[in-house]
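By way of example, what follows is a protein record of this kind.
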Amino acid sequence: MDNRLNDVQFIHDYATLIGDVGFGEEYERAKNLYLDAPIETLVITRKLLEYFTEKLAEEHSIDVVGLNLCDKITLIEKHDLYRREIITQMHDIREAANKYAHYREGEPHFNQTQCVELALRTLKIFCNFIQDVVLASSGKMNDYVFEMEIESPIKNWCYDALVNNDRDAKYKLGVALFNKYNEKLRKTKESPYIDKRHLQRAVDFIEEAALEHHIDAMFVYGRVLYEGVYRQKDIEKGIDYLYNAATNDLVEAQAYFAWLVLVEQESSVSDDMQIAIEFAEKACHQGSGLSHLVLAQEYKKGNNVEKSHEKYLRHLRKSAECGFPDGLFELANVILNGDEGDKYSNSEETALDLLEKAKNLRHLQSSRALLKYYDKSSLPIHTVITRYEEHVTTFPSDLEVRIDFSEILAEEGHNNPEFMEKALQICVSLYRANLKSRFKRKVLKNSQKWLRVFPQIQRRMGYEGDPELYFNFKPDGTPYDDILEMGRKLSELLDSPNLISKYFYRPKS
């Protein structure tokens, strides 16, 4: 029998040790939320880390007033209070919360499953972090086991929302239901058989909470209206909700309002411009990467502020330090372009590192930029291909890069039949996708050209390959874009095998 404490008990013990039982209660709440409300889990773990750093700074008389979490951790590191592994764990927890912030601030590349995985991983890192802190301070290793079982709060939220008319329960229930059913819809690729009334009801709960002035609900519902998600798109009303959330000091709302007004220029009212600048400055003090990027753009162009290249670079660096993907991407481009006003000028290694960080945050442009770099580099072709495979897996809707990938494979395919076969398979999948006409013509031209040479490569290299590959093409080398039509033609072959050359491409002997 395993007599070790579970993770919740372990954190409760630590909370007792530091004389703050609320610390353990908050962790337990974060743990129970990770499946139904993973973003809330990330928010709570960040707050616990903030609390820890402030208590530590107070204990060692370190002045951290006005610093964001990243700067606080950096200052703690400079005082050599903990070994490097513990500092890394602190940054890992902080960066996980940053990913949540990008999700909230408008980055579209995170889904519910990924948020759950991130929340679970962060909880585990947090427990290891506390374990290492205890070991560092007492020399004692307190062992524990991380348990996966939780007590879901959904039932309590339902009761409080429907019976007690609790606005916080309405908001949390609405977000949890929306994420759950939206994930189902995503996995079934907009299946007409999915009942979307659950999503409508989820938005109803969020709207009700917003109407009752729940701050987070006002932010989320403002975005719902702005983006037209299961509600009729209403930009003006959406911005109003965002403004109300921002005036209640919700950092994400301040940043998003500033971005809409100053960058997207959704308002031409001069008062809104000045308010947006003020919101952006406030959010910057709270470590908002989006707000730093907004102000960077304003100083770069001289819009609503006096033009300043120095302030542009300062805010751009801060945005990147906050881990904001667009900030990382833009700073990388500044460095690669050799901007003399930047301290990292001409440092290719630094720029590539920034792009890698942004790519790991699922930033499309950064991933594309890295692909272009590796295309021109002297890396082995298998490494380049692996990079492309990672990209198309992460961004399956990036059809242009899939075309580029197929052409790289085909170029190498003259000496590697597996590559040529894969290039043709990509052509088939692309031709059946929703391609623009000019790209569809390009795919057709490629598939016809590669089909002519593939049989020769097969014979030369003794490669059998997939015998069903050619059934995806018509006699002239055009891929079948209608799978049902292709299936009917195949069925006819069962009774009339001699029709094969009439319906399908046949390699010349």
